[in-house]
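One such shown below:
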Amino acid sequence: MIEKLLCHRSKTLLDALQLFNENGKGAVFVVDDLGKVCGVLTDGDVRRWFLQGKELQSRVEGIIQAEFVFAKRTESREEIFNKLNEKIRILPIVDDAMRVVDYVEFRGSIHVPIASPDLKGNELKYLIDAFLSTWISSKGKYIERFEKEFARFIGARYAVANTNGTTSLHLALLACGIGPGDEVIVPDLTFAATINAVIHANARPVIVDVELDSWGIDPLEIEKAITSRTKAIIPVHLYGQPCNMGAIKTIARKHGLFVIEDCAEAHGALYGGQKVGSIGDIGCFSFFGNKVITCGEGGMCVTNNKEAYGLMCQIRDHGMSLQKRYWHDRVGYNYRMTNLQAAIGVAQLERVDEILRVRESLENQYRFLLADLDHVELQRNDFPDRKKITWLVSILVDRDVVETISGKLKERGFDVRRFFYPLSEMDIYKKYVFSNVNSRDISNRGLSLPTGAGITEKMVSDIVAVIKEKGASDP
């Protein structure tokens, strides 16, 4: 880690920003040709210099302060920590020759977020490149590149980048011709975007229950809920778990229904060896900041249907003709992704397999430490036809302790999240309910644990200790 904290004085502010991105500390120690530390540069310093008119190519040596705080390795722990405060949050520890041998950070109360993005690749490099190109809006090389590379990753012919996961669903519904008088079947246990997109399309959602074992939409309930007005099904691959797509596709073929996959939480998950998103008619993804890969905000629709692809391209761009610029032959929306967002997305996609491996490893740590607890049930990962991915490590605990465990973890600085409320419990959606028994039980017992970049083995151990502690004290 120390190597990633060292920045030669001849480097530029852009180089320093890249190091900030890689080390995750928001600071570098500036060194000379002999490796002697001659200054400390933080992200706050960089912001101030930009406000004063400095450019990205300005050299670090021209902006560092002559005086800076450091500690000698011969100093006591108390002496060293006394130099830290809210303003001086990191300082180098040096030897007699002023070479960095270690560092120390100031940390107030611990806060471990539920999910943090992994931005240690080319995100900053591509973002700066897009910025310097001046193509910062909805045109630019990164948009087309992101679409092509994401389609390849999913195994689909076409991809349409757009503003977020909700607009992805809306675009998909409109491309399938869904509108007034139509019904669309959605699961009860999902984020509200799924049902809202149906309502935005002026169709009627029909809420059905989920399976107890997979937490995904129940094909048996889908079959019961179908009427002459049903036009589509939206299976949601909840918390990275693929739905029973074999049964869902069979039902769809039998009744002539569209299948629009909500893959917002399942980038890279597999059903029958096929990536989710490529199984139904259209797959919809989100790149919000807490997702497996992110653009900050953003969405993507993937499809193998050329006609649907063309419709989505047109609708996302104000309904403008694809052949005749500024000629509008349908009413559309401004659902376009920016080149800046796509630049981050391209960099994220370069490392998606690595990101997924890290998250899976983290989930395996939780699984190992929680394996002997009777009051904890982890999300299943043993379906023979499915390969889930780790979005958020999600567990079910006994209903009488779930709130206490959640509260204790938050008290200790760990941001845990209760499962989504069932749609059927909210007044604005109650009129759309068909069935909802299992979803209520799962929601009442569900907890998602901190997952993603920056979560250490020690943090996992501390989180599990709280869960075990509560289980031991409550029958």
